[in-house]
Amino acid sequence: MPRLKSPPRIAPVSTHAGSRAPARPQTEGRPPRYDRNCDLPRLIQIWPRELDDRSQENLGLIVRKLRTALRAERQRGLAGHWTYDVARHSQLLVAYRIELRRLNEKRPHRTARALQDCKQLGGG
Asked: Of 1, 46, 66, 96, which residue is most buried, by most CB within 10 angstroms?
């Protein structure tokens, strides 16, 4: 019986439109871009009115939600769970740092607050 030739091997081609390029191209040395209106609803459960509210209380709520989501994602990664996503973890960390910075900018400086409290109590 004659031996049949196998067909030539062809490299697999990805059909996904953006499979090789990142969703948002980043340049070297620059921090990743963060669009609050686009990224936050994808990362945490948030109402549109919470997204528009820039008050200190609401920023605190968003930071707490991001911290909780970041902790859960970190635990999935440490456990080697199949649902762990490095890209999501990275996006959560970027969003958390930016929102935490915004919250700290809205808060009065802690030492200034301590001095005010001390003055009100008659200690300084």
From this structure: 66
> Span 33-43, mean pLDDT?
91
Total domains in the fold of the chain: 1
Query: What pTM did the predictor assign?
Result: 0.63
Give the separation between CA 13 and CA 10, rounded to whole angstroms.
Answer: 9
Q: Quick one: pLDDT at residue 11?
A: 55
Cβ–Cβ under 8 Å, residues 94 and 109? no
Domain that holds residue 113: 36-120
6 lies in some domain: no
Are 39 and 17 contacting, i.e. CB atoms less than 8 angstroms apart?
A: no
In contact, 90 and 84? CB cutoff 8 Å? no
Q: Is residue 110 part of a domain?
A: yes
Q: Across residues 93-104, what is the average pLDDT?
A: 93
Q: Is the Cβ–Cβ distance between 61 and 32 less than 8 Å?
A: no
Q: In whole angstroms, what is the distance from residue 91 CA to residue 7 CA?
A: 44
In this structure, of 42-56, 74-88, 107-121, the range with the lowest mean pLDDT score is 107-121
DSSP-derived secondary structure letter, 122: T
Q: Which amino acid would we find at residue 7?
A: P
